[in-house]
Design goal:
The protein is 76% helix and 1% strand. By secondary structure, it is mostly helical. Strands 1-2 form a two-stranded antiparallel ribbon. A hairpin with a 7-residue loop joins strand 1 (37-38) and strand 2.
Length: 284
C-alpha cells in the first residue's frame, strides 16, 4: 500500500475516530477514574480508592441485578434460533419474499415506547390478551408484570419480538452468500434437510452466528428501556445491571457508585463477546 493511500485512509478515518474518542473513549476513562472517588454536587470530591468496589461486592441488589442480567442472556440463543429459522423460510419464498422481510422488520423500526405500551396492555394481569388466553385454556392467570421471574420473561418476550427481524436480515444476507452449487451437490448426494443444515449451512454461517450472538448478547446485557417502560414499578431485585446503574447515578445521584457498576457492565460485555469469538475460532 502506497503512502498516499495510507494518508487517504487516515483522512477518511479521522471523523469517525474523533467521535469515538470524544464520545466513547474519554467518557469511559472518566467513568473509570470517577469510580475511585466520592463525587458530591455540594462538597469537594474525595479519593476513596477501592471503597466503591468493596461496596459493590457486598451489595445484594448488585448481585440480584447481575443474576437477572445473566438470565436475560437467554434471549441470545432464542433470537438466533427464531431469526435463522425464519430467514431460511423467507429464502425459499420467491414472489412474496420482500413482503415478508418487510413485515418481519416492522417491530424493529417501531419506537420502543410504543412497543412497550402495546405489550403492557397484552401482559395486563386483569384485562390483557395473554391472561385471557391462559384463563381460557388453563383457568389460571400469570403475574406477567408483578411476579418474579415472570416479569423478567415478559421483558425477554418483548425483546425477542422487537429484535428477531433485525437478526433475520443479517442471517438472510449470510444465507444468500452460501454457494448454491454446494447445496445442490449435497441434494444430489442424498443429503436431507438436517444434514444440509448441520454440515453445510451452519458451518458456512459461523461468522454470521458470531456477529448475531455478540450483537444480541451485548444488547441484552445493556438492557434498560424495555424494563423502564414495561415494569417500572418492579423492585430493584427484579431489574438488570444497567437499570441499577441508572437508579444509583441519576435517581440517587451517586455518580461514583454508578460508574463502578458501569465498569462491571463493560467487563461483562467484554467477557461475553470474547467467549463467543473464541468458541467460534476454536470450532474453525
Amino acid at each position: 500500500m502506497s503512502s498516499f493511500n495510507k494518508k487517504l485512509i487516515l483522512i477518511f478515518s479521522l471523523p469517525g475516530l474523533t467521535f469515538l474518542i470524544l464520545f466513547s473513549t474519554i467518557p469511559a476513562l472518566m467513568a473509570f477514574s470517577i469510580s475511585f472517588y466520592k463525587i458530591s454536587f455540594f462538597e469537594e470530591s474525595q479519593f476513596t480508592g477501592l471503597t466503591n468496589f468493596i461496596r459493590l461486592w457486598k451489595d445484594k441488589y448488585f448481585h440480584y441485578s447481575l443474576i437477572n442480567s445473566l438470565i436475560y442472556l437467554l434471549v441470545t440463543p432464542v433470537l438466533a434460533f427464531i431469526s435463522l429459522s425464519l430467514s431460511m423460510l423467507v429464502k425459499e419464498l420467491k414472489s412474496t419474499q420482500q413482503i415478508f422481510k418487510t413485515i418481519y422488520f416492522i417491530p424493529v423500526v417501531t419506537p420502543i415506547v410504543i412497543s412497550g405500551i402495546i405489550w403492557r396492555y397484552i401482559f395486563n394481569e386483569d384485562t390483557g390478551l395473554m391472561n385471557y388466553i391462559f384463563n381460557s385454556l388453563f383457568n389460571s392467570k400469570i403475574h406477567w408484570l408483578s411476579g418474579y421471574p415472570e416479569n423478567v420473561f415478559s421483558v425477554m418476550i418483548l425483546t425477542i419480538w422487537r429484535g428477531f427481524g433485525y437478526y433475520l436480515i443479517i442471517f438472510f444476507a449470510g444465507l444468500m452468500a452460501i454457494s448454491k452449487e454446494i447445496e445442490e451437490a449435497a441434494i444430489l448426494d442424498g443429503a436431507g434437510f438436517f444434514k444440509r443444515m448441520f454440515y453445510i449451512i451452519i458451518p458456512q454461517l459461523k461468522p454470521t452466528l458470531t456477529l448475531v450472538f455478540v450483537l444480541s448478547g451485548t444488547a441484552a446485557i445493556k438492557l434498560f428501556t424495555e424494563l423502564y417502560i414495561l415494569i417500572p414499578g418492579a423492585p430493584l431485585s427484579h431489574k438488570t445491571l444497567v437499570y441499577y446503574l441508572y437508579v444509583q447515578a441519576f435517581e440517587r445521584f451517586d455518580l461514583s457508585y454508578g460508574s463502578t457498576i458501569g465498569i462491571m457492565v463493560f467487563l461483562l460485555t467484554l467477557g461475553f463477546s470474547f467467549i463467543n469469538i473464541k468458541l467460534i475460532e476454536r470450532e474453525k
